[in-house]
Structure formats: C-alpha cells, structure tokens
Write a structure and sequence with these properties.
Layout: H1 4-14, E1 22-26, E2 33-38, E3 48-50, H2 51-56, H3 75-78, H4 84-96, H5 100-120, H6 126-154
Antiparallel strand pairs: 1-2, 2-3
Length: 158
C-alpha cells in the first residue's frame, strides 16, 4: 500500500500546473493532516484545503477538474472561508460597524452558520459545536445592540 508521500508525488507529477498548490499538510477548514490543495499559482497564499472539505463545505470539485484548470483560488482568498477561525474573525467585523446592510449581512451570516451547524453536526466535535453556538450567541447579542443604536439614530436620540 502506498503511503501519503508516494500518492502526493504521483498527483503532483500528473498535474504539474497545480503541483505547487498540492501538498501534504493540514487542512485549513477541518485541521486534518491530509493531501491538501491551495491556490495555484500560490500568489502569496499558503492556505490549503482537503478534498473532503472542498466538496462538502464549499461545493468545489477541484480535484477532478485539475487537468482542465490553469489556476485556482482557494475559498480563503475568495473571502468565502467558513471555518471556525474565520467565523470568529468575521464576528469582530460585524460588531465594529453599524448599518442596515451590515445588519442584514450579519443576519445572513448567522443563518448560514446555523445551516452549516445543522448539516455538519454529526461530524463536528463538541468543542466545534460549542464554539459555533458561542459565535451565534455573540453575533445575536451584538446585532441586538446594533439594531437598538440604529433605532435611536432614526429617532434622533444619539
């Protein structure tokens, strides 16, 4: 049976254009040590995702399309990463500003997070589930404050 380094070498040899982006390492989304793919050409991005997360979380079937692709940009670089760490980072962005669009955007984000949580609950650890719930709770708490501020501004009570 082939080990991971032999499989990786075969993949890199078969897809030379994507070879820089294909490595053995840690998936940004799930944290598993697997064969992972990142942006190619890399353009300064060192974030990588496993095939399972690309298909399951981002609905991208990059691996089967490698022969046709001349370049690929990862979900992180596209601003679409939905991993727990990026969710926490986005939480701070939502709290730092106030506007109707921002409130709607944060509500949409929470809805997306709830769907993801519901869809992946069986695969998530208790720690991941607890963190998602904490993010949702904090987002809703901050959204409530933003909504109150917005109402006061509309009434001229700032």
């Amino acid at each position: 049976m082939e080990d991971q380094s032999e499989i990786l070498a075969k993949i890199q040899a078969r897809f030379p254009r994507a070879a820089e982006g294909i490595q053995s390492g840690k998936c940004h989304h799930c944290g598993a040590n697997k064969i992972v793919i990142g942006c190619f050409p890399p353009e300064g991005c060192d974030i990588r995702y496993c095939e399972h997360c690309l298909k399951g979380q981002y609905h991208e079937d990059v691996v089967t399309k490698l022969e046709q692709l001349t370049s690929w940009i990862c979900p992180y670089k596209q601003g679409k990463c939905s991993c727990t760490a990026c969710a926490v980072k986005h939480l701070r962005v939502y709290y730092s500003e106030k506007s109707d669009d921002l409130i709607q955007s944060a509500l949409d984000y929470n809805a997306q997070l709830l769907l993801q949580l519901n869809h992946n609950r069986a695969l998530m650890t208790k720690q991941d589930t607890d963190l998602c719930m904490k993010i949702l709770y904090e987002n809703l708490k901050h959204l409530s404050k933003l909504a109150d501020l917005h109402k006061k501004e509309e009434r001229g009570q700032t």
